[in-house]
Amino acid sequence: MMERSPIHDTMRRLAKTFEEMGIPFAIAGAMAANAHGHRRTTADVGILIRRNDLLKFKEHWIGRGWIDLFDGSKGFKDTLNSVKVDVLIVGDYPGDGKVKPVSFPAPELVLEIHNEGLPFLNLPSLLELKIASGMTAAHRPRDLDDAIQLIRVNGLSRDYSNRLNPFVRERFVELWQAAQISEDY
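and the corresponding C-alpha cells:
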C-alpha cells in the first residue's frame, strides 16, 4: 500500500523529476532505512546524487516548485509539500566530512528498486555510510542506532561485516552485538 504523507509525496515527486531529467540518484537516509524495514520518522528526504546532476536539477527547477535552503546550499525544499531535501554528494564523506575509506558512492552502483519502483540505497551501502557517519561525527549517534535497528530487523549475521568496507567492520560487529540484546525488559 502506498504511504501518504508530505514526505512521501516529495520523495515521489523528486523521483519523477529526476527520472524525466535522466538523473541517476538513490534515496538515502531515514527513507532508505524505512525501505529496509527499520521504521522511523523523519522530516526530510535524503538523496544521493552527483554534484553536476544536482546543479543541473537546480538550474532547471529552483524557483519552479523547489527553493534553495539558503544561497549556495546543497539542500533544497519542496514548496508544494514544505519538505526539506537533504543532499549527499557522490565522492563526499559521511559524518565529519573528512577524508576516510568510505565515501558516498555513485547511485547507480548501490541502488535497489523497492516500493513503487523507487531507487533506494542498498542495505550494505546504507550500513557502511551510517556506521562511518556515526564513527566520525559525535553529533550523529542516531546513525549508529539506525545501524543497530537495521541489523536487528533484517536478522543480519555477524559475518555480514565481510560485505562491508574494512573501515567499518569492527564497529559493525560491536553494533551487531548490541542488536542481539533483547529490548524486552
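(Above: one complete record from the training split.) Residues 6-179 form a domain with the Beta Polymerase; domain 2 fold (CATH 3.30.460.40).
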